[in-house]
Design a protein that fits this description.
Helix content is 66%, strand content 0%. With 97 residues, the chain is an all-alpha fold.
Length: 97
């Protein structure tokens, strides 16, 4: 029996935890800072869209609707708080690993 591969799943899991930890460090540091710039605008447009406003007529920005849809889903899942934006950022980072 080859013992060299028996600890491999543990090491892979440990590597994934390390990568996730590296993603959380910068996000954790900024968790209490207000959302600003483009991210704030995307969140506002998504929130208005969820409240019944029509994109590109009642609420406007020059980005495609899938961006606002993503922020809207995040707000539906996590509420209309900064936590929704934080969670979206973390999930996007995690999916790109």
């Amino acid at each position: 029996m080859d013992n060299s591969k028996s600890g491999r799943p543990f090491l892979i899991g440990l590597a994934w935890l390390g990568l996730i930890g590296l993603l959380l460090v910068p996000l954790w540091h900024t968790r209490h800072e207000p959302v600003h710039g483009d991210i704030a605008l995307y969140s506002i447009v998504a929130s208005e869209w969820l409240h019944g406003k029509t994109l590109y007529t009642q609420v406007w920005d020059n980005k495609p609707p899938l961006l606002y849809f993503t922020y809207a889903v995040s707000e539906l899942l996590f509420g209309e708080t900064q936590r929704a934006t934080w969670a979206l950022s973390f999930l996007a980072s995690l999916l790109t690993l």
